[in-house]
Amino acid sequence: MSGLPEKYVKTKQGGGVKSHFHEDGDLTVLIVGSPHARAEVKGLQVAAAKAVRGVRGVLTEKDFAEIESVMPPLTSAGEVRFEGQPVAVIIADSFEAASNGRDALRIEYARLPAVLDIEEASRLKSYHGDAVTYAEGAVGAALSEKSELVVLSGQVILPPITRRGEAVPIRAVPDANGGVSVAVETWSAGRLQRELAHWLGLPLAKVTVFPGNDLPATTGSDEFGLAQHVAIAASAALNTGRAVSLSYCPASGSASDELVVLSADYKAGYGAKDGKIKGLRVSMEVDGGPWAGEKVEAVLMDALLSVYGVAAVELSVRCASTNTPPTDAVCEDDSVFGMFVAEEILSAVARESGILGEVLRQRNFAGELVEANPLVSVWRGGLRDAEYAALRKEGEVANEDSRYSKRGLAAIPVRLSTSGDDGQGVDAYEVRLQLHGDGSLRATVPVCSEGMKAFMAGQAADAIGVDREAVVFGNASNSGAVSGFASEETALRAFEEALNRLAEMLRPLAAEVFEKSGVDGLNVDEVEFMAGRVFSRANPDVGFSFGEFASYLDECRVAPVATASLYGSGSKSEVFGVGVSEVRLDGFTGDFQVLRAMLYVGSPEHKKDFQTVERRLKAGFLSALRWMICSKDAALEVLDTPFEFEVEAIGDKSVPAPALCDCFAFGRSFAYSVREALRNAMVASKPEGNPGDLGIPMVPESVFRAMQRKR
């Protein structure tokens, strides 16, 4: 037996024993983190720690392969860049022994000036590389002085995204052949397996990741810190020859679970008469680690362009470099984040143009033929079933009869992609990779974000040694278009599978180069690609550059091709809906209450089938509302008065049955309708002059302050 619980090994060898995750006899792993936000590790003495009774070993960065990584497992020399960054690891029989070993470690630090918040990073121009940018159409021309469009400038300030998940258990077990098996809940087992192989200096075949299906799950934001901790557990198991277990907790581990957005500055060019947005430029700054820019750009693009059609658009994201734990709190269930920016811009255009918000939104729905957009029928059906026109008239009458108490009504579109990969009525994502003799890699992939393409280029560089800049992307004509992170993850898994196949094709070719160079008896399995080199696992000093290898392929007229195809949810798996909310505002104090929140969903199912998910929809709604209010207590006070909450299905045969698999996320996205309804109530309270912009947090105090200002 591998020592892993039965549920992780039954597909390979059956039988087995325990169902719980931690096994008796597992060694304890204690991670020693930096006490400083930024410092240079001048010295690390481990002899005294190793001599402590019950300590089985001490790990430093020397126990991992030397590869470039945004977030290496350990940093035992050089610069540590955030408080808690892992420096060393104690492996012991018990937590008490591990604690004693930690106390015996001798680590010398030289403190360095630290940048502790995003405002300071912005002032100092401290960024992670260049901005991540997506552009389509002639944005400059649309926003120029010569344009016939009205150009509106503004800024969106977002509250932090904070999510504290449960601790994630990790268990690593070595095998007799020098390999290691790891059991952990992860949404990206393939990527994690590759990272472990690189960090541990092992062939991919010697690393096995068993993703658990009933353990506490990580979110997309946790995966980077999780990979670091899994690598530590795997190395500890290999170094001691014993099974080890530990837990990764984002709240206290090496990765914070908060994404801070400094600002989203925008310029929107729209038609004065019809309110149609023809040009849009959005520039954002975030504190989210080196990788967050790619995902923020993608989630913003996804939220904006999947619902609304803009002829010319430019989205750019810069990541502030701070000495706080690397973060990335954006994943597929955070559509509310990108939607917040998109809807704030639409609301600003509606206010400036004098067009009703729901009318302006419908005019800007995506699609050359709006009638062909599946959102349109759901939108109209939702407004009809909500009796929206009657509610508006009723609210206008109530507002005329009351001096201070005002009602506000709003409707917004919502959208969610499914994440089910059952291959039923969804798209096949095909990836084709071809390596050319000039060292370039031609990657034909589904249409996806520029950020994801940049990530794929990095994956290719790590997997086969090709230069990132030499990865050329083309769009697959026979693949479904990527829509949403669930889809991008499917496309990425197909890309990784194709990379694995390409690497297997290249190993025998590399072995031929070794043989021509006089290296005899080299096993094909010993060939490794890493950091732009092709070398022998048995003797890392023996090898050659990837460029030399590409020249050999050119001489042989060989252009290896690898393909992979996976089924996943895409444009055919989208579900659309309309969120309708109404609030009552006390224009004298700024206090407000939610009167109703109704969600109309496009689905072939009947309303009774949504009764089982209504609770999670409401939970998602409240979660997003707390995010905008920035306080759980304040949110409860706002919602103190019972309100009407309904979920209704709008018949749409084009929507697959499992489309509402993540109803919590769907609930989050439609909470924005409350903010829009509150704005409308504020306008009704100040008919002689529109109030100022509603700030964050969205609490009675900020409403009151906005009521005192005029635009």
Write the layout of secondary structure elements.
Layout: H1 6-9, E1 27-33, E2 39-45, H2 47-50, E3 55-59, E4 78-80, E5 86-92, H3 95-104, E6 106-111, H4 118-124, E7 132-136, H5 139-142, E8 150-156, E9 161-162, E10 168-174, E11 180-184, H6 189-200, E12 207-211, H7 223-240, E13 244-248, E14 258-270, E15 277-287, H8 292-305, E16 312-319, H9 335-353, H10 357-363, H11 374-385, H12 388-401, E17 405-417, E18 427-435, E19 441-445, H13 450-464, E20 471-475, H14 485-516, E21 527-530, E22 533-536, E23 543-545, H15 546-555, E24 561-568, E25 574-586, E26 592-602, H16 614-629, H17 632-638, E27 644-650, H18 663-669, H19 672-685, H20 700-708
Helix pairs in contact: 6-7, 8-9, 8-13, 9-18, 13-14, 16-17, 16-18
Can you tell me about this structure?
Helix 6 crosses helix 7 (223-240) and helix 16 (614-629) packs across helix 18 (663-669). The radius of gyration is 28 Å and the shape is globular. Helix 8 links the parallel strand 15 and strand 16. Helix content is 33%, strand content 26%. Strands 3-5-1-13-10-11-12 form a seven-stranded mixed beta sheet, sandwiched between helices. Strands 7, 8, 9, 14, 15 and 16 form a six-stranded mixed beta sheet that branches. It has a four-stranded mixed beta sheet with strand order 17-25-26-27, sandwiched between helices. The chain has 711 residues and is of the alpha+beta class. The model is unreliable at 1-21, 213-222, 251-257, 328-333, 418-427, 477-486, 567-573 and 654-659 (pLDDT under 50).
